[in-house]
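DATA SHEET
Item: assembly model
Revision: 1
Owner: S.N.
Input lines:
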Amino acid sequence: MADRKKRARIVLRALFALATFLYLWLPAAAGAAEIKVAAAADLTFAFKDVAARFQKETGNNVKLTYGSSGNFFAQIQNGAPFDLFFSADVGYAEKLAAAGLAEPGSMYEYASGKIVIWAPTASKLDLSRGLATLLDPGIRKIAIANPQHAPYGTAAVAAMRHAAAYDKIKSKLVLGENISQTAQFVQSGNADVGIIALSLALAPAMKNNGRYVEIPAADYPPLVQAGVVLKSSRNKGLARQFLKFLKEPGTVALMERYGFSIPQDAAGHNESNVSAPR
Amino acid sequence: MDWSAIFLTVRLALLVCAILLVVGVPIAWWLSFTRWRWKFLVESIVALPLVLPPTVLGFYVLVAMGSNSPVGRWYQSLTGHGLPFTFEGLAIASVIYSLPFAVQPMAAGFSQVDRDLINASSILGASRIRTFIRIVLPLSIGGVVTGLVLSFAHTLGEFGVVLMVGGNIPGVTRTVSIAIYDQAQALDYAGANRMALLLMAFSFVTLSITYALNRRIWAVWPMHR
Amino acid sequence: MRDGRLSVHIAYRLSNSFTLEAQFEAPAGFTMILGPSGAGKTTILNCIAGLARPDAGRISLGARVLFDSDERIDMPVAERRLGYVSQNLALFPHLTIAQNVQYGIARMPADERRARMMTMLESFRIAHLIARKPGQISGGER
C-alpha cells in the first residue's frame, strides 16, 4: 500500500529529473563562430554549395535561412538577428541601407537573376511559344511567387503584362510564399506550369523532372540581386569574409553554373557607396 | 535529419509545459470555482487560441512583443535585444497558444471533484489553498497530467505562430515543423518525410501514454486491494 | 456545545415560487428538524454551516455571530468550527482512515493529534482500520 505510493513518487521524481536533464543537456543555441544568412529563395541550391565550400575553406559555419526578400526585409526591420541579407531585389537592400540598418559600404550586387517558364516532364505544353503558352485553355493552375514580397513574382507579373496575358490568366494564378515554394508547386504537379527562377530550374531536383524555356530579359525589369552586411550583426568580420568569398573566381563560376549572371567586375568594383540613398 | 531542430523543439515543449503548470493551474482553479457572472468572458479569452488562425495569433503576439510595444521595449532594455526571433519570445508565444490545451482539461478535472468533499474540507477548517492542495489536486491529478501532456504535444507541432514570431533561425527558432516545411520547399521530400514520421510517432506515443494512464493513475503497476 | 444556544432567523429565496423562511432557537443537545422533501431542511443546515448564503437574516451560535445580513457579517466556512456529516458521508477517498480523522485537527502537535484520533477510533471500535482507505472498508464501518 505505502509501497505503491512510494513507487508512484519515485516514478514522478524520475520523470521530473529526466525532463530537467533533457532540458539542460540538449544543445542550446549554436556557438559563436558562425554567420546567419538570410538568403532569397532563388539561392536555395546555389548557396548550399557556396556555403559548403566556404565552410570547407575557412572552417567557419554558415547558417542559411531561405525565404522571400520582402519577408526578410520586414523581419530585419523588426530586429531579426541575421548577419547578412541577400535580397533578390536591390530595392530591399537599398531601403535597409536608407533606414540605417546596413553596414555602410557593404552593399554588393552579387548576381542578376532570370525567370523561366517551367513545366513537368509529363506536361504536353509546347513551351517554345514562350509566354503565349500560358494562354493554353487546358491549363488550370499557373504558379508564380507572391508579387507582394517576392521579386521573382513581381518579375513574373511584369513579363505577363508585357505579353498582354496577365488579365486573361490572372484567375488561374497560384501564389507561392517565395520562389522556392513556387517551384515546389509545379514540380509536385499541383500547378500545371509555373514561372520560376532559372537557378531553381537548373537544380538537379528540378532539371530531371521537367523542362523550361527562358523568358527574354527585355520582357521584365532586371532582377538585380544585392546583398548587405547588417548593422546589427555580431560577426561583421566573418560576414565580410563571406562577401569576399563570393567574389572569388571559383565561387563566381559556381554561381554562373546555377544560371546567375555575375557582374563582370567581381574584383570589387561593384561595392557601391551606400551613404547616398537612391 | 535536422537534430538541432529536434532538440530545440523538445526543449521548447518542456519549457512551455513547466510554465503552463505554474500559470495554468491557478487559472484553471479559478475558472472551476468562481461564481463570478462574467466568468464566461475569461473562458472565451482562454479558448481564443483554439479558434484563431495561427497567423492572426502570431501577428498579435508579434505586435505585442515587438520593438514598438511596452513589453518589447522593457525586454530590450533588460537584455539588449528584442523578443521576436529569440527562443524566449518563441516560448512566450507558445505558452499563449497552448494555454487552452492546459487549462481546459485541468479545469474540467477540478470541476469533477465531489463538491461534498470540498465542503467537508472547508467545514473541517481547511483554508481554500489547503483544500485545493490536499483534496482537489490529488483527486484530479489526471486532468492536470492530461493538460500538461496535451500542451507538450501541441507545442511540438505548432507551425504558423512559430514561423511568424520565430523567424526560422536555425538552432534558435527553427522547430521540427518549420524544418519539415523547409525541406519540402527545397524539394527534399525524403528528408521531410523522415522528420514528419518521427514527429508523428512521438506525438502518438505521448498521447497513448496519457490516455492509458488516465484510466487509472498508475496503470503501469496493478492495483492491489 | 459549550457555545450555548443556536439562533437562526433567515430568509432565502430559492426560486420564483419558493422563499424559505426559518426562525428558531436550539438549545445545547440534539435538535431535529423534520419536514417533507424539498421543504428546505438541508438548505437550513447549509446556511448554518456557511455552504449557502441566505438573502437576509442572522445566525448566531452562543456569543459568536456566524451570519448577519444587516451588519454584513458572513464568517467563512473554515472559521465556523462546526462538524457536519453529509448524506453521502464525504470521506476523502484518497486518504487513509487515519488521515481522514486527523484532517480537521492537522494543526495540533503530532502526538496529541494521534492520541485524539486513536481515542476516537477505539470508541467506535474501528481502530484496526486506520491504514485503510474508505474504498476498502464496509459501509457500516464508514
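QC remark: Chain B has one domain: 3-36+83-213.
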